[in-house]
Structures are given as structure tokens and as C-alpha cells.
Amino acid sequence: MSRPELQAPPEIYYGDIEATKYTNNTRVQQIQADMTYRALELLNLPPDEPAFLLDIGCGSGLSGEILDEEGYYWVGCDIAPSMLEVALEREVEGDLFLQDIGQGFGFRPGSFDGAISISVLQWLLNAETSHPTSSPPHRLTRFFVTLHAALKNPSRAVFQFYPTSDDQIQLITSIAQKAGFGGGVVVDYPNSKKARKVFLCLFVGGGGAAQQVPKGLEGEEQEEGQALFEKRRERMRSKGGKRKNIKDKDWILRKKELYRKRGKEGVPRDSKFTGRKRKAVF
Is 230 in contact with 206 (CB distance < 8 Å)? Predict the structure, then answer.
């Protein structure tokens, strides 16, 4: 079966039907969760501190839900309108932008404490037209240069992606380094055909290229399809995180304010009754 990025541009491939199908697929949800937890581990953010993250190619918000669960604030961008529509329907917490990352970003310098991206970078390796600005090197350069500017110093950006050859990995890493990033490639389970995953771990400042690239995971994938970071997820939940008492008054007020900013109509006004517990009705 042909890879999705070879069939059509992402904004066309992920139409209404495919976006819904992708989001509701339990296997996709599991893989997205596993890769997002691993990306956060490689991001190596200070524990118990708030952070503002960029989710590149956020899609329908599957990875964003993990960021919510871990207590981070985030902004997501994606080129597929149908994916963003699904994210809005699912009422994700992060702000969403329709953006072709190959054209670069327009964020203020130093806006983000870090960035993650799950299964996106390989889409920049295909030229949609013969115009020079559509070539992979040009689009990758615009992407990495503007991303570098949008990240704080020091910080990290972690990309999980699916390269088809070592030449693609070399192209991506060389352009990222020219844009000012340090870091390199991390390969988990390199000897497994099924579990092998490739991550690009990039550094901004803090020693740059002098920083040591994290080591990849080795051994065998956990049995019975258990998520690699299930124990870590349970540990976070037991501590209590952002989703604890998720429907208290503060959560409701934040949600209503988010809807107002997005221009949603019919948002109820705030009052002294907002979030008040009501007696059971029989």
C-alpha cells in the first residue's frame, strides 16, 4: 500500500471522511499517544513547570490531548482544514492555526518553550509543483529557519517522522543545522521492523551542537501492545494534573472564554450560577 504522502497533498488526502476515520481509529490513537509521550521525554522540559509548546501538524488534536493531560499550554498548526474542523468539534484546549509549515512561521521570536511534531516531517519531502519554491530543500529551509526564530533559547524541538531512506535523513538534518539547530537523529528499537521509530531531536542555544543527543530505546517492544509510557501516564494521573476536577468553575470559565475568542455564537454569559453544582432531579 502506498504511503499517504505519496498519494496526494495532505490538505487533499485528509478530507472530511479520512480526517474522521483517522481520528476514530483506536490503533492510530494508541500510536499517537505513545509517540507524543516519547517526544515529551526527548523534549526534556523542567518537571512541574508550565510550558508553552508548538504542536506542528497537530491534525485533529490527538497529540494535543496528551499535552493537556501533562499540564502544558499549546498552539497547534496544520494544513488540512478538515483535520482542524475535527479538532474544533472535539473541543481541544489549544489554539489552532491553518498553516502550511513549508512556507514558514510568523510567530514572534522566542514565543515557545519547545515544539513537537508527530508523523509530519516526511510530508515536506515531496514537491507538489515544478516551481523552485516547492522543492523540498526550499520548503525545509523556510520551515527550520522560522521555527528556530520562534523558539526560546535554550529549548528543544522533537520530530517523529517516517523517512524512506538515509538520504532523506541527511537532507533534513543538514538543513536544520544550517538554520542554527544543534542535535541529531534518535532511533528507537533500530533492530525491529515493527517497533522502529525515528526522531529528530534539535537544540536551540544552551551549547547547541555541544549538547549530547539522547540515546534511542533498545530491546523489544512491550508485550500485548501496551503503550510504552503507560506507567508514566498512570503516575501523572495519580499525582493529579490539569484534568483533575476538569469541570469545576475555573475550567468552565476558561472554556467559555476560548469559545468567545474563536467567535463561537451562543456562548452563555458568566454569572454567579456558573459552575454551581445542581441537585439531582428525579
Answer: no
CA separation for the pair 57, 36 (Å, rounded): 12
What's the distance, CA 245 to chain centroid?
A: 25
User: pTM value?
Assistant: 0.81
Q: What is the DSSP letter of 127?
A: -
Whole-angstrom distance, CA of residue 11 vs CA of residue 44: 32
Question: For residue 8, is it left (φ>0), alpha (ψ between -120 and 50) or beta?
Answer: beta
- Residue 192 CA, chain-centre distance (Å), reads 24
One-character DSSP codes across 57-125: T-TTSHHHHHHHHTT-EEEEEES-HHHHHHHHHTT-SSEEEE--GGG---PPTT-EEEEEEES-GGGGG
Q: What are the φ/ψ torsions at residue 116 (nearest 5 degrees)?
A: -130, 160
DSSP lists the bridge partners of residue 182 as 203
In tens, the pLDDT along 129-159 reads 888 899 999 999 999 999 999 999 999 999 9
Question: Within 10 Å of residue 151's Cβ, how many Cβ atoms?
Answer: 25
Other beta carbons within 10 angstroms of residue 246's beta carbon come to: 12
CA distance 52 to 209: 24
Name the H helices within 179-248. Answer: 230-239
Q: What is the DSSP letter of 188?
A: E
52-71 confidence digits (pLDDT tens): 999 999 999 999 999 999 99
Lookup result for grid cell 543545522:
177
